[in-house]
């Protein structure tokens, strides 16, 4: 008799303490893969420091915060999300391309690939980077894409890791007034560099910074040794 | 037995219910003795004043002497405390101010004050002037970080659960609109405020209001001017960021007129308490409150009183002068020291090598800094300089002449060699991850308190932090006149500043002279960052390129020469080196020109638009 009455007291307590399950759900499983491209080619950007970002918005919820998507240095990106319809947009004024905030609608079901087509101010072509004794021989061509774009400077960068950009480097040579449309050749002396002399692995790429933009555009990373 | 248990349970339950739902006396119905309601506050002049004092304590932002670390992230000082500081980028929220709570509190104060009958009309206006000055100061600090933000006027919003909040959702003002509001507020209150200096410059008077007006106008003018000269100006579609170019001249004109009003009519002047010793004179202009004729508005600190002192002196004092365990947290860097000119040479580089690349030998440590701008000695303790009458020895080690080359010898701080000569000074500098030893080669002088006990943990310092001072009026007038094409007027004001510093007057000038003069005149006074931002120079000066001399921090290491039998024995030489505790160059990116808007603010108020690059 008493036992039954105790249960009357315990039942509400049990209901209060339990009750998880309805409002919990599994972590997101779906994958969004993509590239930032021009004419179908992925663009090289700075991949460190969360420098180049895209933003994912999803309508129909109370809060409007975008999900930042970080672009890797080879121009690819990926995000792990719930299935649903998303709007993908470049971040305002971010990246070495003409600022364009047009929305790409992404319908994510399982795994989806998406290319974001942008218009960079320049592209880099015929890039060749090779070690030549104690020097790095670089040759590349800057191709004008946007008519009124101007080059701030070009740079040749060497790093001891696979991350190479205008912040992560061990050797940097700036070319202040490179001409677009012609082949530029430059030799960079590495003999004074400690990492070079110590035989560290070396990676290199070239970059060009459009005037007034917050980021440079880069070639793909080349492993020198 | 069964029955008795049930009875016990019932009794306990009954007791619980009685306690929970019954209250037999009004024992708990009491007037709170720690909370005053509006009626009580605004019936008592002393309480009104203490509410205002609370507001004065809540407006410390940006760089200031209560947070020495903030001095080390630009190009003025470096952090010596412990190991390297690996900062590279600046935060999107650096020194961001968003204090609508304070604005609401000030508006509540204004509402109560205007209804109060405890004060004379004139006193009420004076209080209103101070409160509105502080409100304008809050808006100014928000505006220079984020651009235009919502202007709520005198409105005190009240919220009840379930009400429609859309009426509370104010859109952002334009950037120009917010600077205009600050200027008009300062105009409106100038007449309410006293024109006499206040005690320790701790409260705002008419001249503080006019200084804020002039500063807002020169900020707005230079933003309108230089932002639109960028290859791609930073602006939003609605003008929340970005001031139209056609407003440039009007703002410069306002700045010039207002600054000239202060120069000609205020009781302030360039401090000249020590005409015989200009270094000392400049130190006293900033760091001594007694008979100071220059500082218009400051955050005062005083002893006793909980939390009313500053630890700047305690954490930054040279080890040889320390009175407690703390010392040498940070020190100025060579970049700043070399920005100070020589009395007859505008290139301020410290001469450490001759044309052949050989060392220059100095008889005394301080000789390397002879004939410098007097403000250097007033702002920075250079090696060998006096503090409280005792020399501050900064010596990194010895340079030993050995078979035709120099060898460097360092030691534990304070150790001597066999001949009894000092190797590394207890003050430093050295390269290490240790605490309490200098690593830049210089100590702060500006704001370093000479009072007994000022560097102890028990007492701390009463040093104030000047926010507005007469020299800024001269610099604003000079800059505005220059931009308006009045070169001779601009030169006249600039040369007054330079004369006080003991350096040669200029015969012609450009904006670069203004930039340099402001850098050395206002070092550690929370100007440099905002100045470079409004001139749109920050991303050029701090461009993040390794070994770029303006983005990389440098230190200067003094050495004692040990070369027995040669005339140079016992002299001093100097090495310039990248500052070991700051391995990365400063990198100010275009997105840093405006703080990011917190997305939570936008969620609460969808009419708030985001800033560029966000």
Automatic annotation (TrEMBL), chain A:
The keyword Transit peptide does not apply. Residues 1-22 form the signal peptide. PROSITE patterns: PROKAR_LIPOPROTEIN. Residues 31-119, 122-223 form the DUF3823 domain. Keywords: Signal. It comes from the Bacteria. InterPro entries: DUF3823_C, DUF3823_N. It comes from Parapedobacter indicus. This is DUF3823 domain-containing protein.
UniProtKB/TrEMBL annotation, chain B:
SUPFAM superfamilies: TPR-like. The keyword Signal applies. Residues 294-612 form the RagB/SusD domain. It is found in: Cell outer membrane. One of its GO terms (cellular component) is cell outer membrane. It holds the Pfam family SusD-like_3. Keywords: Cell outer membrane, Membrane, Signal. This is Starch-binding associating with outer membrane. It comes from Parapedobacter indicus.
């Amino acid at each position: 008799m008493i036992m039954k009455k105790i249960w009357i007291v315990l039942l509400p307590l049990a209901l209060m303490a339990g009750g998880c399950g309805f409002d919990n759900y599994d972590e997101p499983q779906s994958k969004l893969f993509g590239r930032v491209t021009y004419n179908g080619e992925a663009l090289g950007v700075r991949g460190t420091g969360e420098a180049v970002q895209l933003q994912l918005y999803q309508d129909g919820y109370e809060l409007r915060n975008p999900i930042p998507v970080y672009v890797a240095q080879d121009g690819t990106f990926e995000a792990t999300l719930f299935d649903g319809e998303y709007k993908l947009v470049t971040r305002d004024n971010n990246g070495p391309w003409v600022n364009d905030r047009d929305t790409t609608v992404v319908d994510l079901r399982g795994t989806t690939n998406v290319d974001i087509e942008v218009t960079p101010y320049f592209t880099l072509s015929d890039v060749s980077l090779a070690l030549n004794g104690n020097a790095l021989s670089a040759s590349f061509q800057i191709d004008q894409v946007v008519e009124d774009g101007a080059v701030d400077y070009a740079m040749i960068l060497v790093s001891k890791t696979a991350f190479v950009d205008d912040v992560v480097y061990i050797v940097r040579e700036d070319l202040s007034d490179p001409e677009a449309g012609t082949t530029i050749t430059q030799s960079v002396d590495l003999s004074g560099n400690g990492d070079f002399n110590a035989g560290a692995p070396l990676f290199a790429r070239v970059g060009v910074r459009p005037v007034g933009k917050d980021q440079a555009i880069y070639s793909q990373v080349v492993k020198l040794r | 037995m069964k029955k008795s248990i049930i009875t016990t349970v019932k009794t306990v339950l009954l007791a619980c219910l009685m306690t929970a739902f019954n209250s037999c006396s009004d024992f708990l119905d009491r007037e709170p003795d720690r909370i005053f309601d509006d009626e009580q506050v605004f019936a008592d002049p002393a309480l009104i004043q203490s509410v205002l004092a609370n507001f004065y304590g809540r407006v410390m932002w940006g760089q200031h002497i209560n947070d020495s670390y903030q001095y080390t992230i630009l190009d003025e000082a470096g952090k010596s405390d412990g190991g390297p500081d690996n900062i590279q980028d600046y935060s999107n929220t650096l020194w961001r101010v968003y204090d609508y709570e304070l604005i609401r509190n000030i508006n509540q104060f204004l509402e109560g004050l205007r209804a109060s009958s405890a004060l004379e009309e004139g006193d009420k206006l004076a209080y209103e002037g101070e409160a509105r000055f502080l409100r304008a100061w809050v808006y100014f600090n928000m505006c220079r970080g984020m651009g235009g933000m919502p202007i709520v006027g005198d409105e005190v919003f009240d919220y009840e659960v379930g009400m429609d909040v859309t009426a509370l959702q104010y859109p952002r003002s334009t950037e120009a609109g917010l600077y205009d509001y600050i200027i008009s507020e300062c105009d409106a209150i100038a007449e309410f405020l006293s024109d006499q200096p206040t005690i320790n410059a701790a409260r705002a008077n008419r001249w503080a209001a006019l200084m804020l007006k002039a500063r807002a106008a020169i900020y707005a003018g230079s933003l309108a001017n230089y932002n639109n000269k960028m290859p791609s100006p930073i602006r939003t579609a609605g003008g929340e960021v970005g001031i139209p170019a056609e407003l440039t001249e009007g703002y410069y004109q306002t700045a010039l007129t207002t600054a000239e009003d202060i120069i000609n009519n205020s009781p302030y002047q360039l401090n000249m308490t020590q005409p015989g010793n200009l270094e000392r004179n400049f130190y006293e202009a900033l760091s001594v409150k007694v008979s100071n004729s220059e500082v218009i508005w400051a955050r005062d600190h005083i002893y006793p009183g909980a939390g009313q002192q500053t630890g700047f002196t305690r954490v930054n004092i040279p080890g040889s002068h320390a009175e407690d365990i703390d010392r040498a947290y940070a020190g100025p860097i060579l970049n700043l020291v070399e920005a100070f000119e020589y009395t007859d040479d505008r290139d301020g580089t410290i001469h450490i090598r001759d044309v052949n690349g050989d060392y220059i030998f100095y008889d005394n440590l301080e000789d390397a800094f002879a004939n410098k701008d007097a403000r250097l000695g007033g702002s920075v303790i250079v090696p060998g300089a006096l503090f409280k009458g005792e020399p501050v020895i900064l010596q990194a080690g010895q340079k030993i002449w050995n078979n035709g080359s120099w060898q460097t010898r360092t030691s534990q701080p304070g150790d001597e060699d066999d001949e009894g000569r000092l190797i590394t000074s207890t003050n430093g500098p050295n390269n290490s991850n240790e605490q309490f030893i200098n690593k830049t080669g210089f100590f702060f002088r500006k704001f370093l308190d000479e009072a007994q006990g000022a560097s102890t943990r028990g007492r701390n310092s009463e040093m104030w932090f000047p926010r507005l001072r007469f020299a800024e009026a001269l610099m604003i007038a000079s800059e505005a006149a220059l931009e308006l094409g009045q070169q001779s007027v601009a030169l006249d004001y600039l040369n007054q500043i330079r004369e006080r510093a003991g350096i040669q007057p200029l015969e012609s000038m450009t904006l670069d002279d203004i930039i340099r003069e402001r850098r050395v005149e206002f070092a550690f006074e929370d100007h440099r960052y905002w100045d470079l931002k409004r001139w749109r120079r920050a991303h050029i000066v701090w461009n993040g390129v390794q070994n770029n001399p303006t983005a990389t921090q440098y230190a200067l290491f003094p050495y004692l020469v040990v070369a027995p039998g040669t005339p140079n024995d016992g002299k001093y030489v100097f090495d310039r080196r990248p500052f070991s505790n700051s391995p990365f160059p400063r990198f100010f990116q275009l997105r840093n020109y405006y703080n990011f808007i917190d997305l939570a603010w936008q969620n609460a108020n969808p009419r708030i638009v985001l800033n560029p690059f966000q």
